[in-house]
């Protein structure tokens, strides 16, 4: 019996790829082991979104190779590098990492079992990565969830059509391709029937769900799309909301360019949709948004936020920004700081611009010094912390529904798994259940309940 170890790095979208690989390995009769030194095969599912993620992935690979060399009993262990790093650098990695036994891309995750079977006993290196990924999962795709029993992710689409000048994702994961609404609903029903209390919808851009299949002209950014033309995120969440059961539906990775009044209304009409949206805005300055190729401008973003808050008054908005982007002036940065102060986002984060090869932004003039980028990141984070503290202070005395993550720790509707903050609660509340609590205090980013 072949024993397989897995190291899964990166975002929730990558985690689902890992879950699918484990599902296929178990279906093939292979055994998973958490101990790397006991594995016949070690899979490292990598990320390469930004430089920090690349370094983490490369470090994990080198660590695995070094450990194998140090222990003679693991000399025959095979190492497979999967995921975004393999896909992005498919031509360079085999020569840079000759000790890796195989490289597989995003289209090979369902073929991992026969790949391992063919690899065992072979000494030569294999590069199995194909260009231009096409794969998307279905409701009946073998999958072993690596999340706690009470929440799960559903990947509703793969790839991305947006031209953001700083982002390499479309080059790695290909064009946007949506699953069918029926497939997503079937998977959600299976998860809810198994006891899942929170469904997290993910893709590179969840707001573009279904639109790639519309007949005729594809919707343009800021076009006010609605659900009358075909399947969309609006029609999907209305159908999910109709599934019997007590659960949350959470929207992650939305893009501001394809929000619509219909989507806002669908959220307002669907009580099972968590009053939370994740919408990376990246900046507010028109100059920066143009250079970033974000398909939006500052006036549109401000108006969209007003429409969302008016349509769903109790909504929590989570966003992220990039500071230190090429060409960012002091005026651009100050406009962003004022925007953060004015909007008081419930949850937010900041990225220090990462210069990624093969992106438009990497070739731009006006690259900022790393100390300038760091200083702006620190200042933006302080502004966000001030805003979050004001939001948290306003929660004191309020009753709140939370989902218990572990003894004494819970999440509110304002908090996505592994991203946002926590609510400290009574340790006797059962894990995986909902509870009504009253907020008594706050500590930095976290809340304290009775």
From TrEMBL:
Q: Where do the Radical SAM core domain residues begin and end?
A: 146-390
| Reactions mediated catalytically | L-aspartate(89)-[ribosomal protein uS12]-hydrogen + (sulfur carrier)-SH + AH2 + 2 S-adenosyl-L-methionine = 3-methylsulfanyl-L-aspartate(89)-[ribosomal protein uS12]-hydrogen + (sulfur carrier)-H + 5'-deoxyadenosine + L-methionine + A + S-adenosyl-L-homocysteine + 2 H(+)
Domain (MTTase N-terminal): residue spans on this chain: 2-121
| Cofactor comment | Binds 2 [4Fe-4S] clusters. One cluster is coordinated with 3 cysteines and an exchangeable S-adenosyl-L-methionine.
Instruction: Give the GO cellular component terms, alphabetically.
Output: cytosol; ribosome
Instruction: Give this protein's Gene Ontology molecular function annotations.
Output: 4 iron, 4 sulfur cluster binding; aspartic acid methylthiotransferase activity; metal ion binding; protein methylthiotransferase activity
Protein name as catalogued: Ribosomal protein uS12 methylthiotransferase RimO
């Amino acid at each position: 019996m072949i024993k397989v170890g897995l190291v899964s790095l990166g975002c929730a979208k990558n985690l689902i790829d890992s879950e699918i690989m484990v599902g296929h390995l178990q279906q093939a009769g292979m055994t998973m082991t958490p101990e790397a030194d006991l594995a016949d095969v070690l899979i490292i599912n990598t990320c390469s979104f930004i430089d920090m993620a690349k370094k983490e992935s490369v470090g994990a690979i080198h660590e695995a190779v070094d450990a194998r060399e140090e222990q003679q009993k693991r000399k025959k262990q095979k190492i497979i590098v999967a995921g975004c790093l393999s896909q992005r650098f498919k031509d360079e990695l085999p020569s840079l990492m000759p000790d890796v036994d195989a490289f597989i891309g995003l289209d090979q995750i369902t073929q991992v079992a026969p790949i391992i079977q063919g690899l065992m006993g072979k000494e030569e290196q294999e590069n199995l990565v194909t260009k231009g990924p096409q794969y998307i999962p279905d409701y009946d795709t073998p999958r072993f969830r690596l999340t706690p029993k009470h929440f799960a992710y559903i990947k509703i689409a793969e790839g991305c059509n947006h031209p953001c000048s700083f982002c390499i994702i479309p080059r790695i994961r290909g064009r946007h391709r949506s699953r069918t609404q029926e497939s997503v609903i079937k998977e959600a029903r299976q998860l809810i029937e198994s006891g899942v209390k929170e469904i997290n919808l993910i893709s590179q851009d969840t707001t573009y769900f279904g639109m790639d299949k519309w007949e005729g002209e594809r919707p343009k950014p800021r076009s006010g799309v609605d659900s009358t033309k075909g399947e969309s995120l609006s029609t999907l969440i209305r159908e999910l909301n109709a599934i019997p059961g007590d659960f949350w539906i959470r929207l992650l990775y939305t893009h501001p360019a394809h929000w619509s009044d219909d989507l806002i209304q669908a959220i307002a009409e669907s009580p099972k949709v968590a009053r939370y949206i994740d919408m990376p805005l990246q900046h507010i300055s028109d100059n920066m948004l143009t250079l970033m190729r974000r398909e939006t401008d500052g006036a549109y973003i401000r108006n969209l936020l007003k429409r969302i808050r008016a349509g769903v008054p109790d909504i929590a908005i989570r966003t992220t920004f990039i500071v230190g982007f090429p060409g960012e002036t002091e005026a651009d940065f100050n406009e962003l700081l004022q925007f953060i102060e004015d909007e008081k986002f419930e949850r937010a984060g900041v990225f220090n611009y990462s210069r990624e090869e093969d992106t438009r932004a990497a070739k731009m003039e006006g690259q900022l010094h790393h100390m300038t980028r760091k200083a702006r990141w620190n200042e933006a984070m302080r502004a966000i912390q001030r805003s979050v503290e004001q939001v948290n202070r306003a929660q004191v005395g309020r009753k709140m529904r939370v989902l218990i993550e572990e003894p004494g720790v819970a999440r509110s509707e304002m908090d996505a798994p592994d991203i946002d903050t926590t609510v400290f609660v009574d340790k006797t509340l059962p894990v995986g259940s909902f509870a009504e609590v009253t907020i008594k205090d706050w500590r930095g980013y976290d809340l304290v309940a009775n």
